[in-house]
Design a protein that fits this description.
Layout lengths: L1 H23 L8 H15 L4 H4 L2 H25 L7 E3 L10 H13 L7 E3 L2 H48 L3 H4 L2 H23 L15 H16 L4 H26 L5 H11 L8
Antiparallel strand pairs: 1-2
Helix pairs in contact: 1-4, 2-4, 4-5, 4-6, 6-8, 6-9, 8-9, 8-10, 9-10, 9-11, 10-11
Length: 292
């Protein structure tokens, strides 16, 4: 029975490691704990119609919540591993009153000490197998800290790329390029570079799906609001007379269709056309689709 309880703890730890792996290094559209937490907080914020400033905190607060849950489950899992073998399989420092505490409390304390890599030494594994496996908790704690830093460093560059593209589209909209300007060599270069940036955003939504639940601020920095203008530029490029401009317009249009497919499959589930998907994307972020 003792081993069965310990195996339950191992299962909890393995579940966290699996979720950590799929969140940071092998994201899938089926999601995990991070996607579940962020989706729930996002829907709650929309349902209660909280202020836009508060909605903007959903993404960061969700990341903090997910990391806290990862840490809590790891600590709980290892506590369950230690619990059936406490106190007989452990040694206590002379004068320590830890052995007088309930075994579960000692197990949680030891798990906290190990995952934080403090190494206080007042409770130490006595049996050989525990002496081999307990340092693994310290390694997992270090890996969790490293993964958290990596997650933050990966998410925010993705947000910067998305917001930079939105601002570029807003500037293009405000400059009101003429048909002659688009139907030129410069227009072909512009449409081609926009297609490249849209592809990068599409990859970001695939690799860092959590970035979807971050608001972009004002309309000019909101890709959800400005993506409609990118579709308009693609249509104007496709209707141009120059062959290179038409090709660039087709590239931009294809990139936008691919982006719409990713947004619909992973987040929106409208089953509609790219225009429908982009309108739903804008509405989901509290925006309206900007078109000239």
């Amino acid at each position: 029975m003792e081993w069965l309880v310990s195996l339950v703890g191992v299962g909890l730890v393995m579940a966290v490691l699996r979720d950590l792996f799929h969140t940071l290094w092998h994201p899938t559209r089926h999601g995990g704990l991070s996607r579940l937490v962020m989706t729930v907080l996002w829907k709650l914020a929309k349902r209660f119609r909280v202020r836009r400033r508060v909605v903007g905190l959903v993404g960061p607060l969700s990341m903090v919540t997910v990391v806290g849950m990862w840490a809590a489950i790891v600590i709980l899992g290892w506590s369950i591993v230690y619990w059936p073998h406490m106190p007989g399989a452990f040694t206590f420092s002379p004068g320590s009153k830890a052995a007088q505490e309930p075994p579960l409390l000692d197990s949680v304390y030891l798990s906290l000490v190990m995952v934080a890599t403090l190494g206080l030494g007042d409770i130490a594994p006595g049996e050989g197998w525990l002496r081999l496996v307990s340092p693994l908790e310290a390694l997992i704690g270090f890996a969790l800290l490293t993964a958290t830093v990596s997650w933050v460093l990966e998410i925010y560059p993705a947000l910067s790329r998305r917001r930079a593209l939105a601002i570029r589209l807003a500037l293009l909209r405000d400059s009101e390029p003429t048909t002659q300007q688009i139907d030129s060599c410069a227009g072909a270069v512009m449409l081609d570079s926009l297609a490249t940036e849209v592809v990068r955003v599409r990859i970001d939504f695939t690799q860092y799906a959590e970035a979807y639940y971050f608001h972009d601020g004002e309309d000019d920095a909101s890709f959800a609001a400005m993506v409609g203008y990118a579709a308009t530029l693609a249509q104007r490029g496709q209707a141009a007379r120059r062959q290179d401009v038409r090709l660039a317009g087709d590239l931009l249009g294809g990139a936008l269709e691919d982006l719409a497919t990713i947004l619909d499959e992973r987040f929106l589930h409208t089953g509609g056309t790219p225009t429908d998907v982009f309108a739903a994307y804008a509405a989901d972020h509290g925006r309206s689709l900007h078109q000239p």
